[in-house]
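Bug #2210: token dump truncated for Sugar ABC transporter substrate-binding protein?
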Amino acid sequence: MLRRNRTLRASAGLTALAAVSALTLTACGAGAQGGSGGGTKVGLITKTDTNPFFVKMKEGAERAAKENGVELVSAAGKFDGDNAGQVTAIENMVNSGVKGILITPNDSKAIVPALEKARAKGVLVIALDSPTQPQDATDALFATDNVKAGELIGRYAKAAMAGRQAKIATLDLAPGVAVGAQRHQGFLKGFGIAEGDPSVVCMQDTGGDQAKGQTAMENCLQKAPDVNVVYTINEPAALGAHTALKAKGLDKKVLVVSVDGGCTGTKAVKEGKIAATSQQYPLQMASRGVKAVADFAKGGTKASGYTDTGVTLITDAAQPGVEAEDTAYGLEKCWG
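Reproduced locally. Full output below:
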């Protein structure tokens, strides 16, 4: 899910301030997105409002709000990594009287103090997609098992290599983001190697961005032109990698695997640009989260612990011993 750059310098102060201000207006200005709700408000704070994954998540939350008779108030980071903006949104939502907050944290550690303040005021806090660090900084987590998502594509890549020596490039997310670390660790586990294994010849951060994914792949090809396996944090990064590989005439020779299962990414699997992807389900995360807050408002029962919202390996080139569905299935379930 995942997604991201978090460079913070004094010279960017005005930009950050503008981003926070913009998010504040979004959070305060979001109108009722559900039914009458009997006064019950549910807050949804996503990493951004442009990524198709989070667009689908918001759609799921809007639908669930109508079904459960609550009012949805939404906000989003101005950019990936916008922790300050998410903190402002939390404060605004608490002040507006929300009963619960659903959040996909931009920074899994830095967001914790703001969430603790919200919980201290009786607000139910549920993380979606990405856990906080520590995970128990929220009441509950509704998310893909990101380790499993990485493990599935790792096992697939290992099987597809059929005993050939792997030269692996990992196109990761960004430091400090739990979802990126979990997918990376899962991939290594699935491939049967440990961190620091010599078969990993290049590691680059992409922020989950297509253009940065292309640049990262170009850098890896300069460092290790014999790369034959590419792990990517998400499908935008994978498509960026494909562009770089195609420019060198390597797109048919290098195995690219990814995570997300958006419609664009699933079509890329069908077209052969990505060999396999682990599909996750953002609508499920949001709809279950909204229902949990509605139930809390009605009966006081708090959701707790981790709820796995599912993950499926999608490929049209299945490998022995690796459970998968084809792209026809993936296109029925995709988002974006």
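Output looks complete on our side. The radius of gyration is 20 Å. Marking as cannot-reproduce; reopen if the truncation happens again.
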